[in-house]
Each structure stands twice: as C-alpha cells, then as structure tokens.
Q: What sequence folds into this?
C-alpha cells in the first residue's frame, strides 16, 4: 500500500504479539456471557480497552504486562485460577493478575483495604495495569447512575493517593492521564 512504511516484525515481536492475542482470546472465553454494568456491553470490551490504554495512551510495550492487562479480571470474575494462568502464560503474568485480584471471600471493607495495600507494594507493571483499568472504568462511567459513577471516582482517587508518593517519574504521564480523565468525569457531573 502506498504511503505505509515497510517493516518486518522480528520473530520475538511476532511471538509477543501471538501471546497477547492468546491472552485476549483466553479472556474472551473466560468472560463469555458476562456484560458490563451498563447492561449492554460484552465484558471482554473492558480488558481489550485496558490493553489499548496501556499500549496507546501510556506507551507500555512489555508483552507480559499487556497480557496481564488482558487477563486482569479473570481470576476475580471467572472460574480461572492462578495455576491455569501459570500454565498458559507463565508465572510473571499469573503473579501480575493475582496482584490485580480482590479476594472476594473477605468482607468488602477488609477486601478493599488489603487490595489497595497490595497494589501500593506491587511492581510498576501491576500499577500501570491498575491505572489503565481505572482510566477505562472512568470512560465507561458515563453510562452509569450517579451513585455508581461517584463510586468509581472515589475508588480512582484512592488508587491515585496510594500510587502518587514515589511513583517512577518515567511513568508519571500515566498518573496524569488518569487525573485528567477523573477531572473530565467530575466536570461532566
């Protein structure tokens, strides 16, 4: 095609892309039949958008981080377990997904506190996935009730408050993107 650059993907890049596609397909199968809180959007749209935010908005290129973003809700919201993710995608991806998972066996207040504590201590890759998740949830909040939107705003503020101290300067643009999206949601209310 005229005007498009010619380039070839290395075999490593091809393999990384293949693994990301496998993760997206796995997530689609795991979330099959699930719908977002708007009552009409297939759930898989959310993990796919989180991958897109990580890559296109934040500039993340690490294939394991992108795969974890695609899979970030599979342990929490489907029958998938960590062992299955280790087998399919390796221990690093499984660890990232586990850190992005709330323990639904705990009472809500304890669960949220423990989740935020774990995220605050997590590696930057996990924090970036969580920021992309928050960013997408804010975009998605326009179709929700005022109460649900307020809950998303509050949760995003809590994440930002935990992440901001000591956040790596090279990724500060990701924090700013989420702050900007949060401000846009608040202005719309």
A:
């Amino acid at each position: 095609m005229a005007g498009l650059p010619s380039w070839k993907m290395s075999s490593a890049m091809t393999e990384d892309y293949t693994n990301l596609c496998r993760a997206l397909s796995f997530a689609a199968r795991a979330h099959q039949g699930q719908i977002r809180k708007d009552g009409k959007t297939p759930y898989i749209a959310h993990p796919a958008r989180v991958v897109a935010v990580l890559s296109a908005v934040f500039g993340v290129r690490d294939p394991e981080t992108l795969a974890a973003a695609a899979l970030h809700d599979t342990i929490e919201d489907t029958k998938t377990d960590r062992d299955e993710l280790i087998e399919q995608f390796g221990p690093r991806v499984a660890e990232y997904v586990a850190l992005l998972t709330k323990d639904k066996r705990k009472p809500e207040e304890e669960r949220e506190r423990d989740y935020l504590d774990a995220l605050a201590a997590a590696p930057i890759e996990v924090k970036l996935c969580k920021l992309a998740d928050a960013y997408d949830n804010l975009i998605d909040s326009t179709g929700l009730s005022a109460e649900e939107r307020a809950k998303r705003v509050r949760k995003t503020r809590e994440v930002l408050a935990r992440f901001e101290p000591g956040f790596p300067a090279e990724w500060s643009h990701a924090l700013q993107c989420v702050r900007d999206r949060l401000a846009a949601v608040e202005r719309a209310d």
Remarks:
- The mean pLDDT is 92.
- Residues 56 and 186 are 24 Å apart (CA to CA).
- The chain is about 70% helix and 0% strand.
